[in-house]
Design goal:
With about 260 residues, this protein is α/β, with parallel strands linked by helices. Helix content is about 40%, strand content about 20%. The protein is built from ten helices and ten strands. The model is unreliable at about 250-260 (pLDDT under 50).
């Protein structure tokens, strides 16, 4: 039976690797890696000998190489899928291979799909944020095109769930400014930079405060995960009240201003 193994790799410290990941790196027939250099470096740091074949599997080749890896699975090879950090498929290559393997497994019971759980920047940032975790949404990287960004942020402004984003450090100032405009400057947020690494930094504050901290552009470096509070109960109550006030009633404009302050 060929087994597709999705393995979470450390997001910062190699010591966070699980014993099962160490074993899989040593025994897998094929290792599909987002960056072949990084997986070799990880194996060296873990003092693990890779005995299988390493192939590159990143965004630009994902579509082309997926059928090849499925054929490996059908032939009985175990394929270990790893990305640069965290869990494959979470804003990283992986879901196409999982979908293709699952489709093949429906007709061929010799293929199995499993996962080695472990580190994830999404859940790590959410846990340390101090914001509500009972309901949250992961938004990945915000859209690049301005129109799409505006629509996405406006939709999320009214969402009650805590929101988790990935963002490039160089684009963080712009994103924080735009979220201040859509969500309001008083909305609570947390910037998590270089999680679990030597220079880890976790900053809590309002969107307006964090936008000011991130200036000037280029001042922030490293891997960034941004956590933003959902629309709170008080803000929802103010919105409902505003919706039932005619424009000429005293207080209606004050509510609007407070919500967007």
């Amino acid at each position: 039976m060929g087994v597709l193994i999705l393995a979470a790799v450390p997001i910062g410290q190699a010591a966070d690797a699980s014993p099962r990941l160490r074993e899989a790196l040593h025994t897998a027939d094929v290792i599909a890696a987002e960056d072949t250099r990084r997986v070799r470096r990880l194996a060296t740091d873990l003092d693990v000998e890779i005995t299988g074949r390493i192939v590159s599997y990143y965004d630009a080749v994902e579509t082309r190489k997926t059928p090849i890896l499925v054929s490996e699975l059908k032939d009985g090879s175990d394929v270990l899928l790893v990305t640069d950090a965290g869990m494959p498929g979470i804003s990283d290559p992986g879901y196409r291979l999982v979908a293709a393997a699952a489709a093949a497994a429906a007709d061929d019971d010799s293929i199995r799909i499993t996962a080695l759980p472990g580190p994830s920047a999404v859940t790590t940032a959410l846990a340390v944020s101090g914001l509500p975790t009972d309901r949250f949404c992961f938004e990945g990287f915000p859209p690049r095109k301005q129109g799409e960004r505006n629509r996405r942020f406006e939709e999320l402004a009214a969402d009650q769930r805590t929101q988790v984003f990935f963002e490039a450090a160089r684009r963080l100032p712009r994103t924080l400014i735009e979220l201040t405009g859509s969500h309001g400057g008083a909305r609570q947020a947390v910037v998590c930079r270089e999680l679990t690494k030597t220079h880890e930094q976790i900053l809590r504050g309002t969107l307006a405060e964090l936008a000011h901290w991130a200036e000037p552009e280029g001042a922030v470096r490293g891997e960034v995960t941004l956590v933003v509070a959902g629309l709170g109960r008080r803000a929802r109550r103010d919105q409902a009240r505003e919706a039932h006030l005619p424009p000429d009633v005293p207080g209606a404009n004050a509510i609007t201003a407070a919500r967007h302050a």
